Amino acid sequence: MSSDRISRRGAMFGLLALGGCGFMPIHRNDSSLRGAVAFETGDSVAGFRLRERLEERLGPTVAPRYFLGVTLLDRRRTSAITAEGETTRFNVIGTANWVLRDASTGEALETGQVETFTSYGTTGSTVATQASEADASARLSVALADIIVSRLLIMAPTLTS
C-alpha cells in the first residue's frame, strides 16, 4: 500500500518538475514553422501526396520564411514468394532527401535523408493488386512526410534563435 503512494507521489512530482523545466510539446499549433514553409516536392503523384501531408501538418504557406525542397525515390522489393515461385507481397521502400533553405537568402539551413517502407499484397485480381500498390505508395508518402515534419519540429527552436 505504501509503495503505491510513493510511486504515485513520484509520478506527480515528476510531472510537476517536467512542467517547470520549460518543457514544451513540439506538436503544438503555434509552432514557429506553421504557415512559414513553402514546399517543392516534384510533379509526381507521390510528390503531390507528400506535399499535401506536409501542408496538413505545417499549414499552408502564408508568409514563407523557409523553403523545403524534397526529392523522392522509391523502389520495390519482393518480400514473400510461394513455393511455386510466385511473388505474393512487395515492400515499397521510400527515401526522401530534403533541404530546408532560408527563403530570403537561399542558404541551406538543414538537410536530411529519411527512409521508411510499406508493403502490399499481390494475391488478389490485377485490379486489386494495382489498388493495393497505389494505397501503399500513398501511405509511404504520408509516412515520409511525417518523419520529415518530426525532424523539422525538433530543430525549429534553433531556427528562430
Write the layout of secondary structure elements.
Elements: H1 2-20, E1 37-40, H2 45-58, E2 66-81, E3 87-102, E4 108-121, H3 126-159
Parallel strand pairs: 1-2
Antiparallel strand pairs: 2-3, 3-4
Helix pairs in contact: 2-3
C-alpha-based Rg, rounded: 21 Å
What's the shape?
flat
Strand proportion, as a percent range, falls in 25-35%
CATH architecture: 2-Layer Sandwich
Report the uncertain regions.
none
Distance between the termini: 49 Å
CATH superfamily: Lipoprotein like domain
Q: Helix coverage percent of residues? A: 40-55%
Give the count of structural domains.
1
Short structural description:
The protein is an alpha+beta fold and 161 residues long.
Task: Give a structural overview.
The model has no long low-confidence stretch (mean pLDDT about 85). The chain has helices spanning about 1-20, 45-60, 125-160, and strands spanning about 35-40, 65-80, 85-100, 110-120. The chain has one domain (about 30-160): Double Stranded RNA Binding Domain (2-Layer Sandwich), CATH 3.30.160. A hairpin with a 5-residue loop joins strand 3 (about 85-100) and strand 4. It is flat, with a radius of gyration of 21 Å. It is built from 3 helices and 4 strands, in the order αβαβββα. The chain is of the alpha+beta class and about 160 residues long. Helix 2 crosses helix 3.
